[in-house]
Amino acid sequence: MEVRAIAKNVRISPRKAKLVIDLIRGKKIGEAIAIVTNVESTVKEVILKVIKSAVANAVNNNNAEANDLYIKEIYANPAPMLKRYRARAKGSGARILKRASHVTVVVAEAAK
User: Fold this and answer.
1) DSSP E strands: which ranges in the chain?
2) Which of 5, 13, 27, 39: disulfide with 32, CB 3.0–4.6 Å?
3) d(Cα 68, Cα 52) in Å, to the nearest integer?
4) How many domains is the chain built from?
5) Can you tell me the distance from the alpha carbon of 77 to that of 112, in angstroms, rounded to the nearest whole number?
6) Which phi and psi angles does 96 have, rounded to 5°?
């Protein structure tokens, strides 16, 4: 049984999100939450929220036990970017890309 949760259009760069995501891939839920809470990153609130949402989906919709779950898949894909311009020399402009991401977490029950 797999259960997923997705946070779409989060205003965080996928590159920054992947640094934290790589730390918790394949871990049990309790261990993953402990790792994310102790990481110094602006991404941790979003990742914690998505992990807790996936666990809540598994517990409420599929009657799973929260202690038996682990993170089967977790990834951050790029979302549409906000494109802005900044004035540069000689009347030109430089493009500023404000990146966003879609964070997906898939949890599953560990084999007993």
Assistant:
1) 2-10, 69-78, 82-87, 93-98, 101-109
2) 27
3) 14
4) 1
5) 32
6) -115, 125
Residue 13 vs residues 5, 36, 46: alpha-carbon distances, Å: 19, 17, 12
Kindly report the backbone phi and psi dihedral angles of residue 65, in degrees, each rounded to the nearest multiple of 5, phi listed first. -95, 125
Tokens, residue 3: 């259960």
Which is it for strands 101-109 and 2-10: parallel, antiparallel or unpaired? antiparallel
Tokens, residue 60: 């409420």
Which amino acid is present at 7?
Answer: A
Tell me the CATH number at 7: 3.90.470.10
Residue type, 16: K
pLDDT digits (tens, 9 = 90+) for 67-83: 999 999 999 999 999 99
Residues with Cβ < 8 Å from 33, sequence gap 6 or more?
A: 48, 51, 52
104 is in which domain, residue-wise?
A: 2-109
Residue 1: is its pLDDT beyond 90?
A: no
Over residues 33-66, the pLDDT tens digits come to: 999 999 999 999 999 999 999 999 999 999 889 8
pLDDT digits (tens, 9 = 90+) for 17-31: 999 999 999 999 999
